[in-house]
Amino acid sequence: MGKNAKRRGGVNESEARRTVTVQMSLPVLDAMLGLEDDLFALCVRSGEAVLRALMEADRTALCGPKWSRTTKGAAERAGTTRSEVTLGGRRITITRPRARQRGGAEVELPTFTWASGRDPLDRATLGAISAGVSTRNYAATLDALPADIESRATARSSVSRRFVAMSSAKLAEWLNAPLDGEQFEAIVVDAIHFRKHCVVIALGIAAQGKKRILGLHEGSTENAAVARALLSNLVDRGLDASRPMLFAIDGSKALRKAIRDVWGTGGVVQRCQIHKIRNVMEHLPEAARPRVRAEMRKAYEEPDWKKAQACLQRLARSLEDKHPGAAASLHEGLAETLTLQRLGVRGALYRTLRSTNTIENLNGTIATFTRNTKRWRGGKMILRWVAAALDHARPRLRAIRGFRALPKLRAALDASVASVGEIGQKLAA
Q1: What angle do CA 50, 153, 108 make, to 5 degrees?
Q2: CB of 202 within 8 A of CB of 234?
Q3: How far is the CA of 80 from the CAs of 66, 83, 96, in angstroms?
Q4: CA 320/CA 60 separation, integer angstroms
Q5: Which ranges in 18-144 belong to alpha helices (H)?
Q6: What is the mean pLDDT of the chain?
Q7: Which member of 216, 242, 382, 415 has the lowest number of beta carbons within 10 Å of its beta carbon?
């Protein structure tokens, strides 16, 4: 055991020296009987007592023990003053001990600096907004403090300012986080719409199946320029566009064009099968939908991609006379709905990547997060809210199902793109 690893009862020596003994009378019986303070108020009072004890310990470390005539510190005691700290999700008034340099300026107490500098609204605001609480009603969600504890009201404007600052910081993080050295096996791209605006989001899937939100970009519509700007931003931040990549998308022509523009032949597209089924159903009467839906699902469960392709082509031909719109929809991008089958991807990984459901869950979180916002004042505001929602969802992102098969996907992608390159060279010759 190294010299820096010595522990006392599971606590580092440095931590042990910082330990402060606080004695307080806890009115457990009163709390159980519901006489005065509830549990929250009891916790606030306890936190206040601990804070006072820690600040006093700071002052003792600076000035020496109180009333001591033999031990003197670098500073001297300077009475107390009223100040504000954060407890219980809001600012409350406390009595703060003071210390001064001998004959000089006031010395800050580390505990007070920490407690007063913590933002009372960050985590609390995010949690409340994610639960559907508007900034107008945020204060009403806070538990009541004991009557004898002074607190500053949590104004709507204060909540809004703090949220703007916090969400702006998250947005900057999304847009500027470096991607150098990062390797992903697949990227899921989708857009979420806000009236006259849309935000395109990219979700990366790493070798161990871990999901990472890579970036976002706002535009008036889901066009190729917006998607290209998003993908170009990923490359500018260090993502290697020369490495073949599987892109799972909903079928947007704009996204497909942007992928080709930025990744070239290395961008391998898997069209969302669920979206394709929905698109075809929109061209059919109710009576015809069950049969067509069953045939399409059967084809998408077929491991042999050539058999699946033949099945879908037969189905399209059978629809051409009575339902030409459905037939045309089925023909459009048909091969791209079978990409994973062509690459030999099977099992859980196939079921995960054959649709955009991986990112649709994030879109649901964003929708919940923003549901109380009735007026959007521009694209920057929308981006801030989306960034805050994504940051709230980030800790809950789990590894995808079937991630152990990702090395096989990588090998298949490399081989497929290499084969396409060889064919291109032969045609050019």
Answers
A1: 40
A2: yes
A3: 14, 9, 5
A4: 88
A5: 28-33, 39-63, 110-117, 122-130
A6: 80
A7: 242
Instruction: Please say whether the beta carbons of 268 and 246 come within 8 A.
Output: yes
- Segment (H or E) for 359: helix 357-369
Residue 102's pLDDT is what?
Answer: 78
User: Given the DSSP bridges, would you call strands 11-12 and 197-206 parallel, antiparallel or unpaired?
Assistant: unpaired
Instruction: Give me the residue spans of the domains in the chain.
Output: 27-158, 182-424
**Cβ contact 169:407 at 8 Å:** no
Answer whether 424's CB lies under 8 Å from 265's CB: yes
Residues paired with 218 in a beta bridge: 199
In the numeric block, which tokens belong to residue 243? 């490495």
pLDDT in tens, 253-303: 889 999 999 999 999 999 999 999 999 999 999 999 999 999 999 999 999
Task: At 66, list the tokens.
Answer: 């109180």
* Comparison of pLDDT for 103 and 183, the residue scoring more: 183
CA separation for the pair 157, 188 (Å, rounded):
37
Assign 5 a pLDDT band (cuts: 50, 70, 90): very low
Report CA-CA distances (Å) from 299 to 303, 323, 395.
9, 20, 36
For residue 318, the model assigns a pLDDT of 96
Q: Could you give phi then psi for residue 344, rounded to 5 degrees?
A: 80, 20
CA distances from 99 to 52, 68, 92 (A): 14, 16, 21
Sorting pLDDT into bands at 50, 70 and 90, what band is 141? Answer: very low
Q: How far apart are CA 284 and CA 2, in angstroms?
A: 73
Query: How is residue 208 written in tokens?
Result: 């161990």
- Tokens representing 137? 């009603």
**Which residues, 6+ apart, have CB-to-CB distance to 248 below 8 Å?**
186, 187, 188, 189, 270, 272, 353, 354, 355, 356, 358
Pairwise CA distance, residues 280 & 212, whole Å? 32
Query: Which helix (DSSP H) or strand (DSSP E) does residue 204 occupy?
Result: strand 197-206
User: How many distinct helices (H) and strands (E) make up the chain?
Assistant: 17, 10
> Cα(336)–Cα(342) distance, rounded to whole angstroms?
9
